[in-house]
Amino acid sequence: MNEHVLKEFYIPKYIIVPDSMVEELHRPPSSPVVVFINSKSGGQLGGDLLQTYRQLLSESQVIDLGQEAPDKVLYRLYANLERLKSNGDILAAEIENKLRLIVAGGDGTAGWLLGVVSDLKLSRPPPIATVPLGTGNNLPFSFGWGKKNPGTDRQSVEHFLYQVMNAREMKIDSWHIIMRMRAPKEGSCDPIAPLELPHSLHAFHRVSHTDSLNVEGYDTFRGGFWNYFSMGMDAQVSYAFHSERKLHPDKFKNQLVNQSTYAKLGCTQGWFCASLFHPSSRNIAQLAKVKILKRHGLWEELHIPRSIRSIVCLNLPSFSGGLNPWGTPHHIKARNRDLTPPYVDDGLLEVVGFRDAWHGLVLLAPNGHGTRLAQAHRIRFEFHKGAADHTYMRIDGEPWKQPLPENDDTVVVEISHLGQVNMLATPSCISKSIHDPSTPPSASGHHDDDEASAEESDDESGEERRKFGAADTFRIPEDVDIAHFS
């Protein structure tokens, strides 16, 4: 890629850094980018990638997330763009209209940026490309950016930039999650992280006393996710993996080593022999009722087979590093059960169950899938009183151990559709859109009825849900070490 082509990505410093010297360009760049890199992701890869991008582009448009948070950068950028446009700067208007973002890190880092962009509520939100630098890399894989850690040399980065220039835009649903339980007489119901809080637990936080969702005498937590929420034994294995990685970070710098360690922990945690190592109270059916919102505001309880020990609410067609638990339902069975293929912008979650890791291995086979339970715009878990003193949960690859009060009111976890953001997709993208011309007509109308009924029957304020944004959901405290993000 010659210097002439690289100028198509270039953004002058005065656009990004207010009060810098104005720079004239012969013509606006066709694909201006701002790059966010978690320099501590992927072992040494993050730092190397940061250095290469800064050699190819200006230093001001390549942000080290270890030094500056994306919300500060983007708030500053868009405030400056508005000021420049009001002063008649044509270049500023062109760059705002064509701006694209790149984020390099794990799914947690990518979700952080998606949340910030969601919270900005821009009239023309910039689409986002994701560089796989984590262990699972479900977000990049879903949109065609691969799942293996990328090359960090000049040629590899130039190839990625070329893909960004030619990528198409797709929307992705975002999801709001709320958990409420009566405050226990003893102890705490705060989520227990694997040694230190991962990204999702900064996102999944206790609401303040002034929050409209707060109920006196109850502990209420809220958060959001883009890829999946899961509960049960898969989250337990993930919790063990993250705990081990944070105890011995030097042993987890290689992606293949990480994945093999994950498999070993699945064995030691009993995920392959669940019926022998774990009591029946760990079955999802023994632990909680699972309900989905149907038309006319009616909640319908799902039948969960007693063998199911893990349940996944999936937004993207990628789970655990590229597996697709939902698959593509046979058209006859799908019609009988009112199921559709998994679309990332239809406002529906795919709800899938697994018995154990052996059941999960069917995903490696052609047309393999988990136990399809439902598709829903809104889903609720009501935990049985005293069924267990804790369970394990996971959001977008980040797990935690959740204490459950034994002698108090039912614990409720509820997930509902929040909004959408724009992603960039390559030709090898595996995600499907309901707006694709090849989508069956019956799928495109599936979302509207469910969404309407959800809004009509909302027992919380619909307006408050619409106000709920990523500033609260995805904000990372300033004193958090970004090295702990996956």
Automatic annotation (TrEMBL):
Residues 450-462 have a biased composition (Acidic residues). Its EC number is 2.7.1.107. It catalyses: a 1,2-diacyl-sn-glycerol + ATP = a 1,2-diacyl-sn-glycero-3-phosphate + ADP + H(+). The keyword Transferase applies. Residues 430-473 are annotated as: Disordered. InterPro entries: ATP-NAD_kinase_N (IPR017438), DGK (IPR037607), Diacylglycerol_kin_accessory (IPR000756), Diacylglycerol_kinase_cat_dom (IPR001206), Diacylglycerol_kinase_pln (IPR016961), NAD/diacylglycerol_kinase_sf (IPR016064). Belongs to the eukaryotic diacylglycerol kinase family. Phosphorylates the second messenger diacylglycerol (DAG) to generate phosphatidic acid (PA), another important signaling molecule. PA is required for plant development and responses to abiotic stress and pathogen attack. This is Diacylglycerol kinase. The gene is DGK5.
